[in-house]
Design goal:
The chain is built from eight helices and 20 strands. It is an alpha+beta fold. The protein folds into three domains: 66 residues, Uridine Diphospho-n-acetylenolpyruvylglucosamine Reductase, domain 2 (2-Layer Sandwich), CATH 3.30.43.10; 150 residues, Uridine Diphospho-n-acetylenolpyruvylglucosamine Reductase, domain 3 (2-Layer Sandwich); 106 residues, Alpha-Beta Complex (Uridine Diphospho-n-acetylenolpyruvylglucosamine Reductase, domain 1), CATH 3.90.78.10. It is globular and about 60 Å long. Bound molecules: flavin-adenine dinucleotide (FAD).
Length: 337
């Protein structure tokens, strides 16, 4: 395993912010994982596991080892009467993997088309879009523990998936390296098309995974800024979830406050984008750091913004939304100090 020193991370994060890694290596196979394990145990400095860099904000240079996970491979692991089980290695591009499952004639991942990043990071925040989360079709994943070298398999119940949450995000960051993920894709698919934007686009269509995937792609391309054109990490804040009583109290003073009742409890999710928009931040720009003109939830790098300039805007937004609505927003991407 080759370790390079003082490497720019600008092309390895979708915000496109300049930050230097003290050390950087690529993990391409089992031997590299072993070398990483040894290196970690002989060097007392932090390490960061990196996928596509689409859910991270580097505030500063990283004074440790960045390990870019580039394990490749995908296959149909097994099949029974009701489902097929497909696996992909952590470094596979998520969207390419989704398209590959559709090409194989399988359904279940179509709503998650065009989400940037790699397969190995997808369970970390239980990626979700258009009414579907990764947990809907997740079967299991494999990890290597970088502290002791143990290989472990996690089934769904051990992953503690929640809204943009998992056991791995809350407890084991940079310690458990996810090597591969397996999905259970049902042979009798259930379509999820009752989501604003998708419903209208698909009215009258004969539904299939391919048709839904294409509609999701078109919808996303029309709404979300492309990181290849303008640096961003998608939604920068989670949508706040609150008790129905708190939601109703807030609605007394803000009658247009959007609310989405949650299944299985009496919580209501509201829209972080709406709150930020109402607080007057949409289209805000200071230097090269700003908020998207079209999407109040997306922070953007117009060119040479630094991570700390973007983070300053995030902090100002959080303070202003809290001041106006009494709600503390929570960042969705990982902020690396
Ligand atoms: C334009 C845009 C749109 C987006 N839309 C959505 C959306 O609709 N829904 C959604 O949920 N997300 C969305 N995201 C966020 C992002 O794409 C996802 O969170 C994605 O899963 C991140 O993958 P990544 O490989 O880029 O992870 P990274 O940003 O590289 O890493 C994210 C986290 O995972 C950890 N990690 C990465 N790989 C591994 C591994 N192999 N083992 C252990 N830990 C690992 C990292 O340490 C870090 O904590 C969007 C982002 C952008 C830029």
């Amino acid at each position: 395993m080759e370790i390079n020193q003082n490497v720019s991370l600008k092309d390895l994060n979708t915000f496109g912010v300049e930050a230097k890694a003290k050390y950087l290596c690529h993990i391409r196979n089992l031997q590299d994982i072993e070398s990483l394990f040894e290196w970690k145990n002989n060097n007392d400095i932090p390490n960061l596991l990196l996928g596509g860099g689409s859910n991270l904000l580097f505030k500063n240079d990283y004074d440790g080892l960045v390990a870019k996970v580039s394990l490749m491979g995908k296959d149909i692991a097994e099949e029974d009467d009701e489902a097929v089980f497909v696996s992909a290695a952590a470094g596979e591009n998520w969207h390419d993997f989704v398209l590959w499952t559709i090409e194989q004639g399988f359904a279940g991942l179509e709503n998650l088309s065009l989400i940037p990043g790699c397969v190995g990071a997808a369970p970390i925040q239980n990626i979700g879009a258009y009414g579907v989360e990764l947990s809907n079709t997740f079967h299991s994943l494999q990890t290597v523990n970088l502290d002791n070298g143990d290989i472990q398999e996690f089934s769904k119940e051990h992953c503690q998936f929640g809204y943009r949450e998992s056991y791995f995000k809350s407890q084991t960051l940079d310690k458990l390296l996810i090597t591969s993920v397996t999905f259970r894709l049902p042979k009798k698919p259930e379509w999820h098309v009752n989501y604003a934007g998708l419903r209208e686009a698909l009215a009258g269509e004969i539904l299939s995974a391919d048709v839904i995937s294409k509609a999701v792609i078109a919808e996303r391309q029309s709404k979300l800024p492309d990181p290849r054109v303008i640096g961003n990490a998608g939604s920068f804040f989670k949508n706040p979830v609150m008790k129905v009583s708190d939601f109703e109290a807030l609605k007394d003073t803000h009658e247009n406050l959007p609310g989405f009742p949650q299944v299985g409890n009496d919580d209501v999710k509201t829209s972080a984008g709406w709150l930020i928009d109402q607080a007057g931040w949409k289209g805000y720009r200071k230097g090269d750091a700003g908020v998207s003109d079209n999407h109040a939830l997306v922070l953007v790098n117009h060119g040479n913004a630094t991570g700390s300039e973007l983070w300053q805007i995030a902090e100002d937004i959080m303070a202003s939304v809290e001041d106006k609505f009494g709600i503390r927003l929570e960042p969705e991407p990982r902020v690396i100090a």
